[in-house]
Design brief:
It is a single chain. The protein has 124 residues and is of the alpha+beta class. The chain has one domain. 31% of the residues lie in helices and 37% in strands. A hairpin with a 6-residue loop joins strand 2 and strand 3. The protein starts with a strand and ends with a helix.
């Protein structure tokens, strides 16, 4: 399932004239601004792609509310995967794709599926 959350992200334009190092610096600058703009939101792990082309964020807490807080703040497109069992938990992969200061950003988490969500999915 894919959902778009306003404001929609614009695609990152290809910039072949910039070196990987320059793109990593751009991504680092964008990350610094993103951290300042998301003070108060749950902490997540950030990675800058080796080519500087993209920022990756991962929410470790399996908390859909934390994921939704970033989606609400940043906007973008949400992709929700099918539920699967991991250990004793029913979880689903959730990803937010957006652009922040001209740098593509992907935030991902495994969110615990509630009993209500599991029942709805089983009925579908």
């Amino acid at each position: 399932m894919t959902t778009t959350v306003p404001p929609t992200a614009t695609p990152h334009p290809a910039t072949p004239q910039r070196s990987d190092t320059e793109q990593q610096i751009d991504a680092a600058d964008a990350l610094k601004k993103l951290l300042a703009d998301t003070v108060g939101l749950p902490r997540i792990t950030w990675i800058i792609d080796s080519t500087g082309w993209r920022l990756y964020g991962y929410i470790h807490d399996r908390d859909a509310a934390a994921f939704n807080a970033y989606a609400d703040r940043l906007g973008g497109t949400i992709r929700i995967g099918r539920a699967f069992t991991e250990g004793d938990h029913l979880v689903r992969d959730q990803r937010l794709d957006t652009t922040y200061h001209n740098v593509p950003v992907e935030i991902a988490t495994l969110a615990t599926v509630t009993d209500e969500e599991a029942t709805k999915e089983a009925a579908a």
